[in-house]
Write a structure and sequence with these properties.
- By secondary structure, this protein is mainly alpha-helical.
- The protein has a single domain, classed as Orthogonal Bundle (Histone, subunit A).
- Helix content is 62%, strand content 0%.
- The chain is built from four helices and no strands.
- Helix 3 packs across helix 4.
- Keywords: DNA damage, DNA repair, DNA-binding, Nucleus.
């Protein structure tokens, strides 16, 4: 990819719908609750956006430290920032 390609086009991620569905179901207090396919699709899209954003910020953190490889330390350093950021 060229250098002018936006970062969000360089980062690719996928989530299995079954995994997201089971994660959502695990938070329900009533086992009779149902999750629509539209809700699962929305949660998958949100998870993808979050992964792209976290990856981009971790990459920026590595660049600020003049590193060419993003490590777990870079991801951890942006987690607190992302957790406390207003939406």
């Amino acid at each position: 990819m060229s250098e002018k390609t936006p970062l969000n086009k360089k980062i690719s991620t996928t989530f299995r719908h079954e995994v997201i569905k089971e994660l959502l179901k695990s938070t329900f207090s009533n086992s009779k609750n149902k999750i629509s396919e539209d809700a699962i699709e929305l949660m998958v899209d949100i998870a993808k956006l979050m992964v792209v954003e976290y990856s981009a910020r971790a990459c920026q953190q590595a660049q600020m430290e003049s590193k060419s490889v993003v490590t777990l330390d870079h991801v951890e350093s942006i987690l607190a920032e992302m957790h406390s950021s207003p939406v």
